[in-house]
Design a protein that fits this description.
The chain is α/β, with parallel strands linked by helices and 344 residues long. The protein has helices at 18-33, 53-62, 67-81, 86-93, 107-120, 166-173, 204-207, 211-220, 252-256, 260-282, 316-341, and strands at residues 5-10, 47-50, 134-141, 146-151, 183-188, 194-201, 229-234, 295-299. The protein is 40% helix and 14% strand.
Length: 344
């Protein structure tokens, strides 16, 4: 019997990455408790895909960092990651035409990611080649004007990206428009040649839910049949975007308030992919419902009312409650997930 090919996909969503981080922390804790020798996430998946905050998590997990550590990194540092005084920014935005500044400075996030990744790699700054399972990390290349997927060298011709420092890929895929500036950096590749990363933008603008990237990669690069795939797709929580009011003012002020525009296209893309993957799994009119084409699990949660969480939320109580929602979801689905994806 052919060994199943296992894919983990993690959505973008800013600080809401707390949700998949906690879910996977519970996953690893359960494996350890049950005596699994290979309890790290990276030991239980063949391919990990992650966009934006999901890209940071994907790379961290692929370096062997426990999900609990990544959860705590987010929870304990939300205010420093998104620490620029938002009240001051809002004040000046009223007076500065064009609103020419990104809301947050990247320096704190960069320091945290560099330190965490380096610590996980024995004190040496890791490159993509140091990641254990295969990786696919979407990014938008603003310099050349096209989407790209940064990949490990899991196929012979994939020689472009494995040189790249892991933290630089993480910062590029999480450079959300209006929140952070596009990401640019220099690095020396493994042949000693200096290279540039120029104006790269958050992978969430093209694949906030990167599950389809994983499905295609498994079939093309790994030559896997659809029927042999097992897919775990983790969201970051969604807030239904609805507005039935009769308005005349649908301009810039409306769309930028509460970052509606960014949230809308990221949520819409995630929802569309979820629908497309379901179509692949069950077919039109769910004609394969009794015999799905492959195994697929989508885990996320709805956020509403008092638990409305912005991509740059810093309210500690809200973030703890988001983690609690992830723990609840694991309690509902964790046993099935472990049975499907893990071997003693």
């Amino acid at each position: 019997m052919e060994k199943p090919f296992k894919i983990l996909s993690i959505d973008g969503g800013g600080i809401r990455g707390i949700f998949p981080a906690m879910y996977l922390a519970k996953f690893e804790a359960q494996l350890k408790t049950k005596g699994y020798q290979n309890w790290h996430v990276c030991e239980n998946f063949d391919l990990i895909c992650g966009a934006s905050t999901g890209g940071i998590l994907a790379i961290g997990l692929a370096l062997g960092i426990p999900a609990k550590d990544l959860y705590e990194l987010y929870l304990d540092n939300a205010k420093s990651i998104f620490g620029r005084d938002r009240r001051i920014i809002r004040f000046f935005k009223k007076w500065i035409k064009g609103m020419g500044f990104s809301i947050h400075n990247r320096s704190s996030l960069e320091d945290l990611v560099k330190e965490k990744f380096e610590s996980a790699n024995g004190g040496v700054q890791p490159r993509l080649k140091d990641c254990k399972p295969a990786l696919c990390i979407p990014v938008y290349d603003l310099l050349n004007g096209h989407p790209t997927v940064v990949k490990t060298q899991h196929y012979n011709s994939f020689t472009r990206d494995f040189h790249k420092p892991a933290y630089q890929v993480a910062l590029a895929t999480s450079a959300a428009p209006t929140y952070f500036n596009p990401y640019s950096a220099d690095y020396e590749d493994l042949t000693g040649i200096n290279n540039q990363i120029s104006n790269q933008v958050d992978g969430g603008v093209i694949a906030n839910n990167p599950t389809l990237i994983g499905l295609f990669e498994a079939q093309e690069a790994f030559e896997q049949k659809l029927s042999n795939l097992r897919v775990l797709s983790l969201g970051t929580g969604h807030q239904k975007f609805t507005d039935g009011k009769k308005r005349k003012m649908w301009g810039l002020a409306y769309w930028l308030k509460k970052a509606r525009l960014i949230d809308l296209f990221m949520q819409a893309q995630s929802q569309l992919v979820e629908n497309q993957v379901s179509l692949l799994q069950y077919g039109i009119d769910k004609k394969y419902e009794d015999n799905p084409r492959f195994k697929y699990f989508r885990i996320t949660t709805e956020l509403s009312g008092s638990l409305s969480i912005a991509l740059d939320e810093t309210n500690h109580d809200k973030l703890v409650k988001l983690g609690a929602k992830a723990a609840y979801e694991f309690d509902q689905s964790g046993s099935k997930i472990i049975d499907t994806f893990c071997e003693l």
